[in-house]
Design goal:
Layout: E1 7-10, H1 13-25, E2 33-36, E3 40-41, E4 52-55, E5 58-62, E6 68-77, E7 80-81, E8 87-90, E9 93-96, E10 99-101, E11 107-119, E12 124-127, E13 130-133, E14 136-149, E15 152-154, E16 157-160, E17 165-167, E18 170-186, E19 189-192, E20 198-200, E21 203-217, E22 220-223, E23 226-228, E24 231-244, E25 247-251, E26 259-261, E27 264-273, E28 278-280, E29 283-287, E30 291-305, E31 308-310, E32 313-316, E33 321-328, E34 332-335, E35 344-346, E36 349-352, E37 362-368, E38 372-373, E39 395-398, E40 411-414, E41 420-422, E42 426-434, E43 442-447, E44 453-458, E45 461-466, E46 470-479, E47 483-493, E48 502-506, E49 517-523, E50 528-533, H2 539-542, E51 544-549, E52 552-558, E53 563-572, E54 578-587, E55 620-621
Parallel strand pairs: 1-2, 2-6, 3-6, 6-11, 7-11, 9-12, 10-13, 11-14, 12-15, 13-16, 14-17, 14-18, 15-18, 16-19, 17-20, 18-21, 19-22, 20-23, 21-24, 22-25, 23-26, 24-27, 24-28, 25-29, 26-30, 27-30, 28-31, 29-32, 30-33, 30-34, 31-35, 32-36, 33-37, 34-38, 37-39, 41-47
Antiparallel strand pairs: 4-5, 8-9, 40-42, 40-55, 42-45, 43-46, 44-45, 46-47, 48-49, 49-52, 50-53, 51-52, 53-54
Length: 627
Amino acid sequence: TPNADGVYEIETEAELKEFRDGINDGTIPIESNAKLMADITLTENWTPIGYREVLGGAVATDYRYNGVFDGNGRTISGLKVTPNEVLDWSATATLAGFFGGTNTEAVLKNFVLSNVDVVGDATSRTAAVSGVNYGLIENVGVEGISRIYGQMAGGITGSNNTDGKINSVYVKQDMMSGVIHGEYVGGIAGANDAYSAGIFYSFVHNIQTISGDMASGGVVGANNYVLSHCYAENIEEILGGNAGGIIGRNWNSLTSGAVVLNSYAKDIKTITAAGTNGAGGIVGHSYGKAEVINSYAENIGSISAATNAGGIGGMLQRTGKLQNCLLLGSPSIETTLSAGSQNREGGVLGYLTGAENNLDLLVNCFYPSNITFTKGEDKPIGNVPLVSMDAQYNIGSYDVALSEEELPAIIVLLDNYTLTLAVGESRTFDASTLPGKAGDYICVWGTDDASIVSAAGDGLTVTVTGVAVGSSTVTAKIRGDINVDLSCAVNVVEETDEADPTVTGTPADGTIYPGEDVELVYDFSPCIAIAVDNSGMQTPISGLLADILDGKVVVMGVSKEAGTYFYVVTLQRPDGSTFTQKVYVTIQGGSRPTGDTKSGGGSSNCNSGVGAALFALLGLAFIQKRK
């Protein structure tokens, strides 16, 4: 029975099953909202929530979930689905997962699934969270995978479909274990499967095997739209028809492209492609208008394919692009076909459609000079003779024998993710470089509106000062062999006498350590809290969630990983005006020392003008050291 706000509050396995059964038989509207009020352990095999009823080969009734399922920072343990529990998706496909399918207005958020064993059939869209996703999945974690098997299989979703969005999720194991297997397979999604689907700010860690007969990737098996700011690390093996550290197959039409941005693969033992397809440190096969930009692979043990193996990409076909990409470490690159003319091995790319006629599709891509090529010669592109390479495209190897100071910098990262300043306040942040320290640059820092923000830079370091209330963009124009522009948005609020909010609750001193029951109350009097944004709390990682109670913010849960997290609260002043305030919550490392009396908290400007919090995006760009 829903509460007064129409939300189903779920505390037990029985209540969770009752909610599921109501959605699946139509007695509970698919738009209904639910909220977990306790951790739940599943003791029986699980039938997914949401599906499409198929009668006579056609979809008769759509029972895909279309409400808000708020996990409230809780954990659901013991998810087990077998082929006996799969539900219909179409005349030729089924669904398996905690949710079977979601619709366009669905939101799944703020929970962890642990101890997962989901086995669909040969036609299943299979995952821990949702077999197929058309809505939004955010702030969700999956831990302790035994198996995930299906046709399209992923840790979060089998198929992220039209308008589906996945944001700030993770799939991880405490120890190297777990197998995800099928035809299209990825650590996050088997397929990012439509021209409007996107996956952002998500990661995969410590998976034993990701294996896809058609395509397999550390993050996504087959990508048809946008993947940004994601990474895969500590994976034993990625095996597939096409296999890549991030993406197995990056695929789209000739008029609209799939894009991989600002992402990386790291510490992967083997990447292996079968047949005449491609294996690469970042992407196995990139086709059509598909692009890979501002991304890198690091510490890959071996990259192997029958015919096309490359340090960054296995194959690049049609009119796509590899731009600003980097391989770090010293993998072996191997092709296994006996016919020598088909052994296409390259430090950057195994096979390029059109060979030397399409060199303009690769820009600023580099690999280390100590790669082992098992059959082919040391060259950037497997099917392009060295004599055809043109320096204007900046494709080649870098000398690992050089010192860090001498190495060319190919990647530059801005290390400041959030920047909100008061008038008169200054902050200093840096850009960092890969693969070396590479400090010899012409770097000019500036802003698009110096009347709001000033920027005083020295090399790769800048000090930013709020001048007046408003928004401005700080820019870094780095000039070397390649021109690079980076940017960070900055918001400036009014200068005020700020006071810490009153923080009460447990722990009594406000200081949090891992494994503690937490219920801290943040009182912003004389303001009242009217809304809170939890994205910065990273609930699956921190174990904590911020919510509103009687005009105050309550941070609650069982603390997990040490780190600094934050929530953004919208506050209303006594005069009715509103503003937003970012409040940091820190989980200390180690265990609670005797006599520790540190206090937690944040700050408020309830008597001031409008405040704001702004999330500045990570900037990734690529340059070479100035000669």
